[in-house]
Every structure is written in C-alpha cells, then in structure tokens.
Amino acid sequence: MSQSYEVIFENNRKWLEQKKQQYPDYFKELADGQNPEYLYIGCSDSRVAAEGMMGLEPGEVFVHRNVANLVHGLDLNAASAIEYAVSHLKVKHIIICGHYNCGGIKAAMKPQDLGSMNPWLRSIRDVYRLHQEELDAIEDGHLRYDRLVELNVQEQCLNVIKMACVQERYLLDGYPIVHGWVFDLRTGRLIDLNIDFKNILADIQKIYDLTDSEWVVNARKKAG
C-alpha cells in the first residue's frame, strides 16, 4: 500500500480528534441527519471543492458532481439527486457551478473523437451551437473558453428549471430558487451570473409547464 494512500487515514484520525476537541458532539449531530438549504451541482474537477469555497460544513450543502456540471434530461443520477434534494430535503437554493479552465468544456470545443465521452460532451457542443455567433466573435481563445463555461452554466440552470419537481415545489412553497455560478480557479473568487430564475420560468412555462399533476392541484387547494 502506497504511503500517499496510507496518509489519508492518518489525516482522518487527526481530523476527527480535532473535531471532537472543538465540538464534542460534532459526530453525534452529524449522524442525526442533514438539513441543507443548498443543492450544489458542480464539476468533478479535483480542484473545486464545494463546501470549502462556500465556507460551509458537512451537512449544510447537498452535492452532486459530474464532468462539466451537466444536467441531462435522461441522466437518472442527476435527476435522482435533484428530486431527493427538492422533494425530501426541501432545499431552498439549487446552484449550478462551473469553473474557468474546465477540461470538459475545452474537450467539447475540439474536433476530436473522445470515445465514450462523446455523448456526454455533445451537450456542451449543443450549447456552443446555440451561441456560435457570439463565441466565434471572441478572438481570444481563453476568453472564448471562459464564455462557454458561463453559457453552459446558464443552459444547465434552464435544464433544472424545466424539471417538474422544481416547478411544482416552487409554486407551492416559493422555493427552490435556481442560481448559476462560476468559480475562478485563478483568483479563488465565486462569480454569481445572476440568473433571472422567475423570468426564465415564466418564459418557458408555455412549453415546459409540468405542474398540472393531480397532487399539485390538491396541494394547492389544501394550501388555499
């Protein structure tokens, strides 16, 4: 067993002792359950740690990560995480967070066969296609990459807003609100893209309205 592997367990022992000294009931409270206000959907990149950059502790943010922070309509993994966070944990905020210098975004912008990654990256290429005129007008390649990161976050926010569980809970409770962020690895700064959640929901409602299910109608009657 490599030394680098073994050091993880030594770090764990030091960490738990430190936690118990600072907060004697820390692990008891942690084991009692979670009540996060945030669902964070981010990239799998090892340089981007949700709780650390948000200044939150375990139990305060429910996290789902994948390559390039995508929300595919047929991705049951992401859909299950969102459904659980929205319907059971009752989170108040859903955050899609991309980051500059994202390898998935860069890979999607290259005319290259990447094997099993092709279907996944196709969604990013679709975002490029939708915004091709704007992106091709950016001469600086680094700035073009950065802008596609932002546009991809916006598109994934839209995909989340299209989901029935999000629409239904928002109509009943006024939450969750969907936010789009970008993490700048070069500065450590979080950037809020100021996604206009309410107006986006209103704009797409005619086509993506999924709120006429019987249980929502009944819940509205009870609430009234």
From TrEMBL:
<keyword id="KW-0456">Lyase</keyword>
<dbReference type="InterPro" id="IPR015892">
    <property type="entry name" value="Carbonic_anhydrase_CS"/>
</dbReference>
<dbReference type="GO" id="GO:0008270">
    <property type="term" value="F:zinc ion binding"/>
</dbReference>
<comment type="function">
    <text>Reversible hydration of carbon dioxide.</text>
</comment>
<protein>
    <recommendedName>
        <fullName>Carbonic anhydrase</fullName>
        <ecNumber>4.2.1.1</ecNumber>
    </recommendedName>
</protein>
<comment type="similarity">
    <text>Belongs to the beta-class carbonic anhydrase family.</text>
</comment>
<dbReference type="GO" id="GO:0034599">
    <property type="term" value="P:cellular response to oxidative stress"/>
</dbReference>
<dbReference type="GO" id="GO:0071244">
    <property type="term" value="P:cellular response to carbon dioxide"/>
</dbReference>
<dbReference type="GO" id="GO:0004089">
    <property type="term" value="F:carbonate dehydratase activity"/>
</dbReference>
<dbReference type="GO" id="GO:0005737">
    <property type="term" value="C:cytoplasm"/>
</dbReference>
<keyword id="KW-0479">Metal-binding</keyword>
<keyword id="KW-0862">Zinc</keyword>
<feature type="binding site">
    <location>
        <position position="43"/>
    </location>
    <ligand>
        <name>Zn(2+)</name>
    </ligand>
</feature>
<feature type="binding site">
    <location>
        <position position="102"/>
    </location>
    <ligand>
        <name>Zn(2+)</name>
    </ligand>
</feature>
<dbReference type="Pfam" id="PF00484">
    <property type="entry name" value="Pro_CA"/>
</dbReference>
<dbReference type="GO" id="GO:0015976">
    <property type="term" value="P:carbon utilization"/>
</dbReference>
<feature type="binding site">
    <location>
        <position position="45"/>
    </location>
    <ligand>
        <name>Zn(2+)</name>
    </ligand>
</feature>
<feature type="binding site">
    <location>
        <position position="99"/>
    </location>
    <ligand>
        <name>Zn(2+)</name>
    </ligand>
</feature>
<dbReference type="InterPro" id="IPR001765">
    <property type="entry name" value="Carbonic_anhydrase"/>
</dbReference>
<dbReference type="InterPro" id="IPR036874">
    <property type="entry name" value="Carbonic_anhydrase_sf"/>
</dbReference>
